[in-house]
Amino acid sequence: FLKNSKLSISGDVDFQNGFGLNVQGKVDLSDIGKIADFPIMGEGNLRWSIVGKKPNVQLIFEPELKNAHYLFLNLGDVTGKIIWEDGPEILKFENLIAIQGRTKLLANGQVELGDNESLNIDVQVPNGTVQDFAQIFLKFINENIPWYPQNMIGQLTGLIEVRGKPDLDELWAGGNFEVRDLEYLNEVIRYA
To answer: Vertex 92, ends 88 and 97: CA angle to 5°?
Structure first.
């Protein structure tokens, strides 16, 4: 099942406290293949805790991955915390950092999948480059924006906000970016 991963497990399960399990080790997420119908990849260390008593069980993932890919995003190196709260069906992102080249993304927020489906996620881009940012979204760019100038360079900072419901008709994503030293075809824009 997990032919390229090696994990160890410790802890206990009892009727009074429920789960108290800790899993850790080296993983190759291509062993899993897909999560929620999306391909997942990445190699590195994973700490995974399963804690609590039904219906309030939490799955806490703390990855330290290289070359991570998910949701068709080329995320690069990923660290931070992802928490699944099983009872209320909430997926939380706490200081989830992705570094692609010289670009850093910092995600915090949550996705509620229970009766009150909603997304509320902020992704800060404290420092980055236009070219690295394009690499994160390369599959989308290649399939939907074939005219995108791949050789454009520059610096950027900003914030991406994702709000609404998981249904694409009710999902809103927007961003506010500051771009500096944007260069394309020998033309330079110092600030935009």
So the answer is: 170
